[in-house]
C-alpha cells in the first residue's frame, strides 16, 4: 500500500492512497460480505474508509445510517482503533421516510432534506459518532450545498465550530462548485478550511454542461471539472478524493453501459488507448485507470467500492502497477 497525508495541523492524518467506500454496506451488501471486504482492505494496509449519514436510505426505504452502523459494529468486533481514518458526510439525508429508489434521484426532487443548518450539522455529527463508535470524526464533509436556503458562510462556520470543539478533525466539501470551495476557505479560519474535496473523477471525461438532476440547472456540480482540477493544482494542501473512479463497473462490464454524459468522440479515443495500455501491462482497464490516478501529479485518492472481496482485490492490485512515462503521456493525450 502507498500512503499520503490529508490536511494539516492537529487534524492531519496519514491515509492509504486507495480509499474504500462502504456506501452499500448493511443494505445491498450484507453484513458478512461487508466484514470480509473490510478485513481484506485493512489486511492489505488500507487505512481510509468513506461513508455518509444517509447511506443507503434508498435501498430499504429508511433515512440512512446502515452503512455507518455496519462500519461501527465491525470496528468494535475487530478491535479497530484510530489507526483507521473514517470520513462521513452530512446534508443529504431525507427527513421523510422514502420508498426504495432504483438507480438514482429522478423521483426525489420534492423530498425534504436535512440541510446544513449548524444545529443539524452538529446533531448529525453526534449521531454519526455514536453509530461509528468514535470520539471524533476524522473528516466530515458537507455532502452537497444546503438545499434549504442556509447560506454557505453560515454552514461553513458551523463546521469551523466543530473543528474548534474537537468534534471533527477536518472539514471537507463534496459536490460544490469551485467558487463555493474558495468562499468556504476564505471565510473560515485556517485550521477549519476545507482540506479535502470529494467529487466524481475518472479517466474518461464526461460532459459537465448537462444540468444536475437535483442541485443545479447550470451543469453537473459533482464532477471534478477543469475549473476544480485547476483550483486543486493551484492550492497547496488540498486533496481530491475521487468517487466512482471505475464508473460502477462500466469500464469492464458490458451489461453496464456508460452514462450518456460520456457519449462524445473523446471517449472512443481514450478507451482505445486505455485498452492498449491494459494489453501492454497485462492489467485490466480498471487497474490502469486506478494506476493512472494514483500516479497523477495532483493529490488524488481514488475511492473504490466493492461488493465482493474479488472486486476489491482487483483494485488493490492497481496500487503496485507502475505506468511508464510514455504510457502516461499517451493516456493523457488521448481525446485532445
Task: Describe the protein.
This is Oxidoreductase. It comes from Nocardioides luteus. InterPro entries: AKR_Detox_Biosynth, NAD(P)_OxRdtase_dom_sf, NADP_OxRdtase_dom. This protein has one domain (3-257, 286-323): TIM Barrel (Alpha-Beta Barrel), CATH 3.20.20. Helix 1 packs parallel to helix 10, helix 3 (66-78) packs parallel to helix 4 (118-132) and helix 8 crosses helix 9. It is built from 11 helices and 10 strands. It has helices at 31-43, 57-60, 66-78, 118-132, 152-164, 178-187, 226-234, 265-281, 285-294, 309-317, 325-333; strands at 3-6, 13-16, 19-21, 48-50, 85-90, 137-142, 168-174, 196-200, 239-243, 300-304. It has 336 residues and is an alpha/beta fold. The relative contact order is 0.13. Strand 6, helix 5 and strand 7 (168-174) form a beta-alpha-beta unit. The two termini are 32 Å apart. The strands form 2 sheets. It has an 8-stranded parallel barrel with strand order 3-4-5-6-7-8-9-10. The mean pLDDT is 94.
Amino acid at each position: 500500500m502507498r500512503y499520503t497525508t490529508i490536511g494539516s495541523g492537529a487534524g492531519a492524518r496519514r491515509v492509504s492512497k486507495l480509499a474504500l467506500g462502504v456506501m452499500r454496506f448493511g443494505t445491498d451488501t450484507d453484513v458478512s460480505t461487508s466484514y470480509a471486504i473490510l478485513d481484506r482492505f485493512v489486511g492489505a494496509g488500507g487505512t481510509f474508509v468513506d461513508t455518509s449519514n444517509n447511506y443507503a436510505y434508498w435501498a430499504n426505504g429508511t433515512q440512512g445510517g446502515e452503512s455507518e452502523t455496519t462500519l461501527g459494529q465491525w470496528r468494535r468486533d475487530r478491535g479497530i482503533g484510530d489507526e483507521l481514518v473514517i470520513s462521513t458526510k452530512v446534508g443529504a439525508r431525507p427527513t421523510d421516510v422514502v420508498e426504495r429508489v432504483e438507480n438514482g434521484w429522478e423521483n426525489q426532487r420534492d423530498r425534504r432534506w436535512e440541510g446544513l443548518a449548524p444545529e443539524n450539522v452538529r446533531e448529525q455529527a453526534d449521531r454519526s459518532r455514536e453509530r461509528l463508535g468514535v470520539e471524533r470524526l476524522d473528516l466530515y464533509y458537507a455532502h452537497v450545498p444546503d438545499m434549504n436556503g442556509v447560506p454557505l458562510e453560515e454552514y461553513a462556520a458551523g463546521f469551523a465550530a466543530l473543528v474548534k470543539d474537537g468534534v471533527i478533525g477536518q472539514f471537507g466539501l463534496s459536490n460544490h462548485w469551485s467558487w463555493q470551495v474558495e468562499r468556504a476557505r476564505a471565510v473560515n479560519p485556517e485550521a477549519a478550511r476545507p482540506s479535502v474535496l470529494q467529487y466524481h473523477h475518472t479517466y474518461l471525461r464526461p460532459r459537465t454542461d448537462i444540468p444536475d438532476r437535483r442541485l443545479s440547472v447550470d451543469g453537473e456540480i459533482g464532477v471534478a471539472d477543469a475549473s476544480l482540477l485547476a483550483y486543486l493544482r493551484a492550492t497547496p494542501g488540498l486533496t481530491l478524493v475521487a468517487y466512482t473512479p471505475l464508473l460502477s463497473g462500466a469500464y469492464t462490464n458490458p451489461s453496464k453501459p456508460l452514462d450518456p454524459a460520456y457519449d462524445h468522440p473523446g471517449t472512443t479515443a481514450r478507451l482505445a488507448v486505455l485498452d492498449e495500455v491494459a494489453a501492454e501491462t497485462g492489467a485490466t482497464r480498471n487497474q490502469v485507470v486506478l494506476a493512472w490516478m494514483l500516479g497523477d501529479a495532483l493529490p488524488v485518492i481514488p475511492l473504490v467500492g466493492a461488493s465482493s472481496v474479488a472486486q476489491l482485490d482487483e483494485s488493490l492490485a492497481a496500487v503496485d502497477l507502475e505506468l511508464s512515462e510514455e504510457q502516461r503521456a499517451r493516456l493523457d493525450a488521448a481525446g485532445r
